[in-house]
């Protein structure tokens, strides 16, 4: 398995693991608004990540290669819908903004973790 597929598989799996872990901890020790923020933020960012993956995979898989305009249009539509959902969640006082920030950081945390693991593999492979 090449490095790109391995990283994608790691990040995708880690997204859900971190999301579930953060949600359980949030439900156990935080206020309900903070926990809802973690849950909604994690769901929004994880679903967006999967939709972006599907869009890019479909766009770059022959024979149906899409133009970059289609990819960008889908990206901006997702961005606007996500922004509207976030606005409604915060405006309606359904979630705590700090909890939402923690939930939205799930994908960033999994990408950072994947990068750290790959760097560790490279360093220790060269050390041997």
**Beta-strand content bin:** under 5%
Count, helices: 5
Radius of gyration: 17 Å
Helix content: over 70%
Mean pLDDT over the residues: 88
Shape: flat
Q: Catalogue the unreliable spans.
A: none
The succession of helices and strands, N to C, reads HHHHH
* Total separate domains: 1
Number-wise, the strands total: 0
Q: Termini separation (Å)?
A: 22 Å
The assigned structural class equals mainly alpha
Largest sheet: none
Map the helices and strands.
Elements: H1 3-29, H2 32-60, H3 68-91, H4 97-104, H5 106-127
Helix pairs in contact: 1-2, 1-5, 2-3, 2-4
Quickly describe the structure:
By secondary structure, the chain is mainly alpha-helical. The protein has helices at 3-29, 32-60, 68-91, 97-104, 106-127.
Can you tell me about this structure?
The protein has five helices and no strands. Helix 2 packs parallel to helix 4 (97-104). The protein has helices at residues 3-29, 32-60, 68-91, 97-104, 106-127. The relative contact order is 0.17. It has one domain (3-127). 86% of the residues lie in helices and 0% in strands. With 128 residues, the protein is mainly α.
List key phrases describing it.
mainly alpha; 128 residues; 5 helices; 0% strand
């Amino acid at each position: 398995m090449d490095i790109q597929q391995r990283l994608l598989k790691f990040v995708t799996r880690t997204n859900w693991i971190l999301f579930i872990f953060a949600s359980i901890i949030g439900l156990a020790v935080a206020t309900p608004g903070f926990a809802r923020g973690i849950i909604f933020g994690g769901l929004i960012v994880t679903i967006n990540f999967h939709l972006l993956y599907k869009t890019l995979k479909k766009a770059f898989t022959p024979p149906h290669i899409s133009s970059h305009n289609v990819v960008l249009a889908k990206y901006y539509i997702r961005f606007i819908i996500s922004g509207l959902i976030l606005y409604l969640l915060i405006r309606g006082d359904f979630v705590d903004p700090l909890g939402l920030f923690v939930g939205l950081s799930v994908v960033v945390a999994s990408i950072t973790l994947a990068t750290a693991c790959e760097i560790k593999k490279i360093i220790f492979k060269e050390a041997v």
